[in-house]
Write a structure and sequence with these properties.
With about 280 residues, the chain is α+β, with helices and mostly antiparallel strands. It is built from seven helices and eight strands.
């Protein structure tokens, strides 16, 4: 009888301990969930506040995106540590676990560390900024939207997002099409042999003069460029604002095609002359 009573007492004690442990664990999980929800809202608010401060202080857009990305990662890291602490996981033990896995983590993060260093180099030497259209030897091309701590975010002309790692971008050859205010647009127009070059030149100068987007300084260049197998190629070089480059390029081709047809200037086409022996 006493043995049965003892077993019942032990089972009761065990059940009480399990219930207490379950209640404690449930409380910790609930607390961690509350911390997560409040933390996410707080991080969102702090990110907005930080962005407003950067705008108010007129910080360069390129530096803004980098700092916002870094601050966001730091805040998320702090939130993760707070949740771990609430769950009852000893941070010292957690740190020891990270230290024991340091070699593997270091190898895994080596690429990101080089990307972080690349981001610092990009911000320091400014080969490009937010809003510039660039083309890199890595194959990435587009308008710079953001410079984050690990990646440069580009938007391509057909509206695709490209995430280019900062490490390779900081060491690759980068062509910046937006840095200077003006660009030169080059054309080559072919006309038939026997066409009066001076007439062609006058027509091209008229077309150039009618477009107020084409700059007068440096002066437009129109000269006979080369004599190919089936055409006389006229070289045209004009200077425009960088923002007008593509519009002038397309409009000029259209105007030349229409005007040459109106003035009787013929475009060449490949010809093959066969001589009978």
């Amino acid at each position: 009888m006493n043995t049965t009573t003892n077993y019942s007492a032990e089972i009761s004690t065990l059940l009480n301990k399990l219930i207490d442990a379950g209640v404690d664990l449930g409380g910790r999980i609930l607390g961690a969930l509350i911390i997560f929800i409040i933390g996410k809202l707080l991080i969102k608010w702090l990110n907005r506040l930080f962005a407003k401060i950067l705008i108010k202080r007129k910080v360069d857009a390129s530096i803004q995106s980098f700092l916002k990305s870094m601050v966001n990662i730091l805040l998320i890291t702090m939130l993760i540590l707070a949740i771990i602490g609430k769950l009852g996981i000893e941070l010292t033990g957690f740190a020891a676990l990270l230290a024991s896995a340091g070699m593997a983590i270091g190898m895994a993060l080596s690429g990101n560390l080089s990307n972080f260093a690349g981001g610092i180099i990009i911000l320091a030497f400014r080969p490009y900024r937010v809003g510039d259209y660039i083309e890199a030897a890595t194959g990435a091309a587009g308008t710079v939207k953001e410079i984050q701590i690990f990646h440069t975010v580009l938007v391509t002309p057909d509206n695709k997002i490209v995430y280019a790692p900062n490490g390779p971008m900081s060491t690759a050859v980068v062509t910046n099409y937006s840095r200077l205010d003006t660009r030169r647009v080059d054309f080559s127009f072919g006309v038939e042999y026997g066409t009066d070059f001076q007439q062609v030149r006058e027509i091209l100068m008229e077309i150039i003069a009618s477009d107020n987007r084409i700059l007068s300084t440096p002066e437009p260049f129109v000269e006979l460029g080369s004599l190919s197998d089936s055409s006389v190629n006229v070289t045209v070089r004009v200077w425009v604002k960088s923002s007008d480059y593509w519009n002038v390029n397309f409009d000029m081709n259209q105007k030349v095609y229409a005007t040459f047809n109106e003035r009787g200037i013929s475009f060449p086409f490949p010809q093959l002359t066969v001589h009978q022996g």
